[in-house]
Design goal:
The structure is a single chain. The protein is mainly β. It has a domain of 128 residues. It contains four helices and 19 strands. The strands form four sheets. A seven-stranded antiparallel β-sheet has the order 9-10-11-12-13-14-15. A four-stranded antiparallel β-sheet has the order 1-2-3-4, covered by helices on one side. The radius of gyration is 25 Å and the shape is globular.
């Protein structure tokens, strides 16, 4: 099944790319030539710098696990990011139905091939961007009221809608969206989706950096305080959302049945390391302290967890850290004695 689907995808993308490569220079030649001048079919147009920005490329290609869907992003290259005008294509290999979503990128299928999530950034439309033909959510907030004070209504372009993440049900075509999301991740079991909002205070969070990254624009003394942000845990089975606040770092284990996260709040006395059992919905605190929890890591099997727990030290670049290691998370959750402290602690030396 995968072999046949892969061949079909390769042929489709190759044909599509070839048609683009041929059509773009011809279109450029038609625009450059005079309508009244005779055309020489054997003449070759010499490329000039203005032609480079007309080239497009295919990226972000991905095949669903069941081999029934393929997605890719078609965008301008050799341009500023704001002028890339990406268009996400979702192709049903059984029916050849092609759904386009304007200004979308970063597509990812769930492991069960039932869902597709992707980012939609209206700012990437650039100059003269066109609207999407599928899956677009209406802008939040609505337009500015007409006939505003001093007659300024209608002057200038309205602000672009905020960036969002869309989740598409591949069977029904229904689309759900969340505003101002920095990143998203499917659970390995395809039971849940986590959506991290952009961190407050600007910096890396506002620019769409990795989840858990400290805002680059924040002053050093406030870096830890502004690090936590809201995370939405979406249940793909029930369609319900759960909000987790002041999350520093977050991640599923390999199997996808456990979700670990750290809390970075202000004040810090609510900070800690927590594990959510997705089957029961129970949140289990593993450690709490008025310190900073960082570099949370699951082991390869997804059964153990480690994190650094530290405190800021005057005139030192690094924190004074302690390494907390939980070799068996299931036991730590079910055995109250293990909730008292970590299995082992190692003091980290500072250089």
């Amino acid at each position: 099944m995968h072999s046949l689907a892969s061949r079909r995808i390769s042929r489709a993308i190759l044909t599509f790319a070839t048609s683009i490569a041929v059509a773009a220079p011809l279109a450029a030649q038609t625009q450059a030539g005079s309508p009244s001048a005779p055309k020489d079919p054997t003449a070759k147009k010499v490329l000039v710098p203005d032609d480079y920005t007309r080239w497009r490329s295919i990226g972000g290609q991905s095949l669903s696990g069941d081999g029934k869907w393929v997605t890719y992003v078609y965008s301008f290259t050799n341009t500023a990011p704001a002028d890339a005008k990406p268009v996400l294509h979702l192709l049903n290999l059984g029916t050849n139905q092609d759904v386009e979503v304007a200004n979308a990128s970063g597509p990812a299928f769930s492991n069960d091939s039932k869902w597709l999530a992707y980012q939609v950034d209206p700012a990437s439309a650039g100059r003269g961007g066109r609207g999407g033909r599928g899956g677009g959510a209406p802008p939040a907030g609505g337009a500015a009221p007409a006939g505003g004070q001093n007659g300024r209504a209608g002057q200038g372009a309205p602000p672009a809608p905020p960036r969002r993440v869309e989740l598409r049900n591949l069977e029904t075509g229904n689309v759900q969206s969340w505003q101002d999301i920095q990143s998203f991740t499917f659970a390995g079991t395809s039971s849940h989706l986590i959506l991290r909002r952009r961190s407050p205070g600007g910096g890396a969070g506002a620019g769409g950096g990795r989840a858990g990254g400290a805002p680059g624009a924040a002053p050093a003394e406030n870096a830890a305080a502004t690090r936590g942000g809201d995370v939405i845990l979406h249940d793909l089975t029930t369609g319900r959302d759960q909000l987790l606040g002041s999350v520093g770092e977050i991640g599923f284990n390999k199997k996808g049945d456990l979700l670990a996260y750290t809390v970075e709040a202000t004040p810090k006395d609510g900070n800690g390391l927590f594990v959510l059992d997705l089957a029961s919905g129970r949140i289990n605190p593993l450690d709490n302290d008025a310190r900073t929890y960082a570099r949370m890591t699951w082991n390869d099997a997804g059964t153990g967890l480690a994190v650094l727990k530290g405190v800021e030290v005057d005139k030192m670049r690094e924190r004074d850290n302690t390494l907390l290691v939980y070799r068996d998370i299931k036991s730590a959750i079910t055995d109250p004695q293990q909730l008292i402290g970590p299995v082992s602690t190692i003091a980290a030396e500072q250089g």
